[in-house]
Amino acid sequence: MPTVHPFHVVPSLPESLSRLRTLAFNLHWAWDHETIELFRRLDRQLWEQSGHNPVKMLGTIDQEQLRDAALDEAFVSELGRVHYGLETYLRAANTWFSRHYGESVPKETRIAYFSMEFGLTECLPTYSGGLGVLSGDHLKSSSDLGLPLVGIGLLYQQGYFRQQLNADCRQQERYADNDFYNLPIEAERDAEGKLLRIQVEFPGRNVIAQVWKVRVGRIPLYLLDTNIDVNSSEDQAITDTLYGGDNENRLKQEMVLGIGGMRALAALGIKPTVCHMNEGHSAFLSLERTRQLMLEAKTNFWHAREAAAAGNLFTTHTPVPAGFDVFPPDLLGRYFETYINELGISFDDFMKLGKHENYDTGGKFNMAILAMRFAHHANGVSKLHGKVSRKMTQVAYPGFREDEVPVSHITNGIHTRSFISQEMADLLDRYLGGRWSRDVSDTGVWAKVDDIPDEEIWRIRERRRERLVLFARQRVRSQYEQRGVGEEEIRQVRDILSPGALTLGFARRFATYKRATLLLSDPERLIRLLNDPQRPVQFLIAGKAHPKDEGGKDLIQEIAQFARKPEVRQRMVFLEDYDMNVARHLVQGVDIWLNTPRRPMEASGTSGMKLLANGGLNVSIPDGWWAEGYNPTVGWSIGRGEDYPSPEEQDRVEAHILYDILEKGVVPLFYDRSIEGIPRAWISRIKSSMRQLCPVFNTHRMVSEYATRYYFPAAARFTTLSADSLKRASVLADWKDRMRVQWSRVRVEGVETQQFDADDNVTVGATVHLAAKIRLGELTPDDVQVQAVYGALDSNHQVTGGTAIALSYISGVEEIYRYEGEIPCQTSGLQGFSVRVLPYHPDAELPQELPLIAWE
User: Fold this and answer.
1) pLDDT at 756 over 70
2) Whole-model pTM?
3) Domain count, the chain
4) 436 confidence band (pLDDT: 50, 70, 90)
5) Residues 223, 156: one domain?
6) Are 458 and 581 contained in the same domain?
7) Local confidence band at 195 (pLDDT 50, 70, 90 cut-offs)
8) Residues 6 or more apart whose Cβ sits within 8 Å of residue 461
C-alpha cells in the first residue's frame, strides 16, 4: 500500500464565532437545551444530519453560513450568553461538594470511575445500553455536584452495532467506523506536546494505547484506543467493537481497560485515592494499582494489596452468577505470565484471586470474585438487587446470616436534565424555580408540582406526544426506504399512530428475561385494545438484541412481524436502531412506560425513571427500582412480586394481570376527561409521580450517596493505610495472616446465664445477664470481638433476624477469656441467643476482608 502522510483539517471559524468550538468540545451541551438550540439555530437540518454532533457540524457547514452567522448580531449575542453560561458553570465554587466536603476532604483526593461503556450522547457511540447510560449519567451528575472524579473507558472504532431489520423482520447488524477527528473528543498530549500513549504487556509484545479526552462538564473522561499504526492489525482490532469478538478479545479489552487505564492515569499525573469498578470488566485495575504501590513502597504484593483494596469500590449490576466474565487458566497463563512475575506471586496464588473455595467457577477465573477480593466495599444497584446479591454471595461468608453479607445497595438513578424535554424544563423553571435542576433531590422543591395548572401539564403532554408521532413516522419511512419497500406502503406511513391516542412505550435491550412479548400472549385481546374506536391504544417498541443472542432476536422478529399485521400496523410500531436519540423522544412523548422483566432478574432498570420528570407513568413488574418506587398513587404494579411454580405459570398470570391493568385501570383513567377535555385524575397521578419519585430516582442523589457512603470514607482509609510506605497496611496484612493460622483454635467453651423462674420466664423490660468463656489460642482479646446475637426463635428454635451486641472482656487466664453482657427483653414471645466470636482490627473492614466466625 502507498505511504500516507496524515494531517488534520479543523473548521475555519470567524473570530466572533470561535467560542462555538469551546461549546462543541464540552459535552455539557448534551444536557443544556440552550446550547443545543444555539447549534440548531446555526443550521437545523445539518444538526440532524450530523447525528447531533456539533463538532462534525462545524466541520461540514458551508463557510458562507458561518460568515452570515458572524454578521448576525443576535446570534453572536446569544453565543456570548451561552458561552458565558458554560464558563460560569465550570468556575462555580458553590457546588454540592464544596458546600459539604470542601474543607474536610484533602485536595489531592481523586476518584477514578472505570466502566466498559459510557453513554453520554448519541453522537459518541461508546455505549450499548443501560449500563453505559448509567455510567454517562454518573459522570454528568459528578460534574454538576463538583466531585473530584475522572472517568476511564475504551474508545471503540466501531462502537456498538447499528440495527436494521430485513424483509423477514430479522435483526441485521452493521458496523460503521467512527471518525474520531469529527467527534467531541481530543487526543491527549504529554508535557512535551506528544500524543500520550501507554503500553500493556501481551504475550511476546507490548500493545500501545492512545489516550483521548472527553470533557463532560467539569469531569474529564479518558478513553483508550489501540487502533493505531504502531500496533499489529490484530492488536488494532482490540478496541474495534464494544463487547465484540471472542472470549480472548474480551480478556484483551479488560486488560487494556484495567491495567492500561491505571497506567494512563499515572501518565497523566493522576493518583487516584478511590477506584470505582462499575461491573467486573475493569477488575484488573486492582492488580495494577497493587503493582504500582509495591514499586512506590518497595514492599510485597500482599502488603500493597491491603492499601489498594481499601480504596476500591465494586458495583455489580448482575443478578445471576452466569452474568460475570470468566477466563480459563490456560488463557490467563499466556497473557499474565510476565505480569505475575512482576507481582512476585505464583500462578496458583494468582488464580486463587479469581476463585473461591465455596463458589463453583468451573475452574475458571471469575472477574467478579477478583473485584470482590480487591474492594472493601461492594454494592448492588437497587434494594432488591442488593438482597439478590447477598444471597448469591453468601457462600463466600460461611457462618454469617444473609443480611450480614457485606454487599449493600445504592439504587441507580438518571441524569434528569439529559432526558427532560425543553418544554417541561421550562414549565418547571416557571413553577419550581431553577433549583429543581441544581438540587434535583430536594423534595421541598418538587412539592411545588401541585401548583402547576393541570392545563399546562396536559398541553405539554399532548405536544410531546404529537412530536413523538411525527418522529416515529419519519423514522419508519426511513426504515422502509432503506429496506426497499414499495411506494404505496411508504405512503401509508403518514397514517400510522395518532397524536391523541394513549401511547405506551417499551424500549430496552432485548434479552429473553425482559419478556418483550408478554403482551402478545393474547393477540385477540391486544387487537381489541389497540382498535377500540372510542379509546384507542398504541405501542412504540424499540431495542437491540446482542448479535450472539438468538433468543433476543427471536423476540424482535415476533414483535415486528406482529406489528406488520394489517389490523394493527397503524397502532403498533417497531423503531429500528434504538439509541439515545430514540430513547429521548420516547420518554418525552409516551404516556406509559411498560416494563415486564421476570423478577428478580432486573438489577435496577433506569428507562422508566426517564419518564418521571416528563410526566409519563410506569406500568411495571415490581422488580429493580420499581420495587422501591411503586405505590398506587404513582403508577401500576404488575403483581406484587409473588413466587410461581414455573416460569410458564408466571408468564401466564402476569400477562393476564397486565391486560387487566390496561383495560380496567390505565385506559379508563386516561380517557376520563373533564368538560374542558382534561384528564384531571390522570394528571393528578402524574403530579404524584413527579412529586414523590423525581427527587429520589436521579443520579444527583445516587452520586452523592456514593460519595458520602463510599468514596470519602474509602479515600480516608486508603490514605491512612498507604502512609509511611504502607506501614499500617503491612501491619494489617500480617495480622490477617496470623488470624487465618490461629482461627481454628478459637471457640466458645461455655456460656452461663442467670437463673430464670421455674418456667424459664423473663418479663418484658428485664434483662438477661450472660457470661461466656472464649478460647483464643495464641490470639488476644484485642484481636477479636465477642457478640451475643439475640431475637425471636423460629419453629426450629433458631434465632430469626437477630440483633448483635458486643460482650465486654472481663478477665483471662491461659488462653481462656471471660466476657459478660446484658440482653434487653423488649418484646414477649419465645426468645433466644447465641454467642459468636469475630476478628477485630481498627484498620480492617470486616467481614469483607476476613470472613471468619466461630459460633457457640
Assistant:
1) no
2) 0.96
3) 4
4) very high
5) yes
6) yes
7) very high
8) 591, 615, 686
